[in-house]
Amino acid sequence: MEFKQGWTYAYSEGLKQWLALHNKSGWIYCEDGVKYSPRELAILHTTYGDKPIPWQVHTMKKVFGGEIQENKAATIADWQKKSEKPAAFSAPQTPSTPPAQKPAQADNNEQHYEFDIF
């Protein structure tokens, strides 16, 4: 790895790779191409303190991309409560007969169908 002026480098044992911190912008660039903005780093610091970035979080960011967002739930218990299904929830029933099909307006000799499902 080439070390450049204006950057601070550190090896992450948790992620098993080199990290480069841009001294002016505050962005961290990982050897595998994943980048963390100063905002994301602040969220991670609030969540994990001085512990290293968990490899699970890093892998999710690497696979799905995107930006790490602040968790609006006050606690994990609050988050679990919000994600629970209401007691009265029931799965939609599959109709016993398929929806009626009727030919729609054909365009360029193609066959189209509209479905009556309600």
Return the structural class. alpha+beta
Across the major sheet, the strand order is 1-2-3-4
Radius of gyration: 25 Å
Taking the alpha carbons of the first and last residues, their distance comes to 62 Å
How many E-type strands?
A: 6
Shape: elongated
Query: What is the helix content?
Result: 10-25%
* Strand composition percent: 15-25%
Overall pLDDT score: 77
Tell me the major beta sheet. Answer: 4 strands, antiparallel
Low-confidence stretches: 112-118
Order of helices and strands: EEEEHHHEE
Q: How many separate helices?
A: 3
Defining traits:
single chain; 118 residues; alpha+beta; 4-stranded antiparallel β-sheet; two-stranded antiparallel ribbon; elongated; disordered C terminus
Written account of the structure:
This protein starts with 6 loop residues before the first strand and ends with a strand. The protein is elongated and about 65 Å long. The strands form two sheets. A four-stranded antiparallel β-sheet has the order 1-2-3-4. It has a two-stranded antiparallel sheet with strand order 5-6. The longest helix is centred in the middle third of the chain and has 11 residues, at 38-48. The protein has 118 residues and is an alpha+beta fold. Strand 2 and strand 3 form a beta hairpin. Helix content is 25%, strand content 21%.
